[in-house]
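Priority: medium. Attachment 1 of 2:
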């Protein structure tokens, strides 16, 4: 079988019927698992709000009001939904605190990420102990990248939704639910522009699974969708302060802030210092909860072409972030978590010699 997805497709209906059983197939055990995941998600969200901090120029309140600088304001999915909830609350004479909405968003999307990962791992026919171990590893990744890190990792309401959208996109592409992928893509793009890498994941994982002209048509359609959404948010927030269409993050050495509008002050030089500064390099090595180390070993031995293809998302993502982001700001790597997570999980499953996914 050339692709894991082909084997998944054959049992897709059976898998869909058994999703309600979740993991153990026993209602009590599955209910306990759901409660643990929900409690962990809520506690994680509460701790993030309690101990984290927001960018003072791009707070959630300013994002809801539509007055935050760009490119932050372009990431409008959750702020727009929150504005609607606040308006509904006002109609019912109920005060809806923005901080509560922020925490609720974090909790909901963290929980949804765990459930999507669980369902996908079950689709890949891993055993319950392997799935539980994988969920624990996912918790380590999420905690490291979005909570237990240094001050560069600010709180942004769109980061954890981006993780969920990446996991859901991986599931849909694996199962070849391409129509649903097209429903998801614009939503993910409205949440954060790095969702464009889901298009790259589409290209890499569907290469060879469909005729080339069909694949080219898909990529053209996705390109139009990306450009249309980008043009819409640019037009909607054209009067906001900030970097505008360029979205280049620059050095902070100009006290007047003029550096934010000069192309020759890119972040790349500051980012390169990460690799020559011991403290920052040690911090960078903890990305993904150090699971990038087993990822390198698992990728080398992985026989599943679908997840092996997703490895090619990493080089362009890192290259782009080297120029326009802070590479030691772990929250920016949302779209890379599913490729790493599933590769490590399947590699460990293969090493354990049981519950190996189709195609491995």
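Attachment 2 of 2:
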């Amino acid at each position: 079988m050339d692709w894991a997805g082909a084997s998944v497709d054959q049992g897709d209906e059976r898998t869909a019927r058994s999703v309600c059983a979740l993991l153990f197939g026993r209602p009590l055990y599955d209910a306990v698992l759901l409660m643990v995941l929900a409690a962990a998600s809520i506690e994680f969200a509460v701790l993030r709000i309690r101990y984290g901090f927001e960018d003072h120029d791009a707070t959630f309140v300013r994002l809801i009001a539509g007055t935050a600088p760009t490119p932050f304001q372009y990431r409008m999915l959750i702020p727009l939904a929150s504005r609607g909830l606040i308006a509904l609350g006002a109609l019912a004479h109920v005060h809806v605190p923005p901080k509560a909405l922020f925490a609720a968003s974090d909790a909901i999307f963290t929980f949804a990420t765990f459930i999507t990962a669980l369902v996908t791992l079950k689709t890949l026919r891993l055993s319950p102990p392997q799935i539980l171990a994988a969920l624990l590893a996912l918790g380590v990744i999420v905690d490291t990248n979005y909570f237990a890190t240094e001050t560069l990792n600010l709180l942004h309401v769109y980061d954890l939704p981006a993780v969920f959208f990446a996991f859901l996109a991986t599931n849909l592409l694996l199962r070849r639910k391409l129509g649903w992928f097209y429903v998801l893509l614009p939503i993910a793009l409205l949440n954060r522009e790095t969702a464009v890498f889901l298009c790259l994941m589409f290209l890499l994982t569907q290469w060879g699974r469909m005729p080339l002209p069909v694949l080219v048509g898909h990529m053209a359609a996705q390109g139009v969708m990306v450009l249309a959404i980008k043009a819409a948010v640019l037009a909607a927030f054209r009067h906001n302060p900030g970097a505008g269409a360029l979205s280049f993050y620059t050095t902070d050495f100009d006290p007047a802030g003029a550096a934010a509008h000069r192309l020759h002050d890119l972040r790349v030089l500051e980012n390169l210092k990460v690799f020559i500064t011991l403290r920052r390099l040690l911090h960078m090595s903890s990305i993904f909860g150090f699971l990038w180390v087993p990822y390198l070993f698992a990728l080398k031995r992985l026989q599943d072409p679908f997840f092996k293809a997703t490895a090619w998302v990493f080089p362009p993502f890192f290259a782009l972030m080297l120029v326009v982001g802070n590479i030691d700001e772990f929250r920016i790597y949302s779209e890379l978590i599913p490729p790493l997570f599933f590769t490590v999980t399947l590699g460990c499953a293969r090493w354990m010699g049981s519950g190996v996914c189709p195609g491995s």
